[in-house]
Task: structure prediction
Amino acid sequence: MLTKPFFDRADDAYDLLLTFHAIISGSCALRLLLPQSDIFWTPHDLDIYICEKEAQPLLLTLLAHGYTFTSPSFTANAPYSSSHVHSVYVLHRNSSKIDVIISNSISAVSPIFQFHSTILMNFVTAHSVYCAYPDLTLRQLSLVNPYVIYEQPLQRSTVHALLKYSERNIEYITCQQSHEERECWKDHTRCIDDEYGIWISCSPSVN
Result:
């Protein structure tokens, strides 16, 4: 189960997502989408994205579940290069680690589309799973987000992240290789309700 290492009951994670309009992204969301038989790795932490007005009650709820803040408990948006990240809180409970990433906008989703790779542009809500680039992601293929290369200095944390997913058998391809993919048009603005992403409805038991 997706959140079993992080909560005592599956419903605990579901209640968090539902109550605070939060989403799960990162490795956990990706792991849920990929074929189980082909995957040898497991996520080491849980990334919860939330808008600023819901952040404090969510953090208090995690404390009530036995989590404690890692010192320093609050950081700026590093190692997240996204301008849509306001701040990050890191919490631990025994060997479990949760990152709470607070969005700079009114939507918890907006930082997702500034990830370093399309392979991570997915998220889980209380009732659904979304994948922005299913034609690539479900085949374990990815493009590098050009923003992290051309619009800012290339950060060491970004290089480490690209290497991490390459070691997890994610194949990075060039834009030229994916020209026939409909979702890779350079002059096309994407949104979460367009025809290229997919939404999968799920019950609380998926979490």
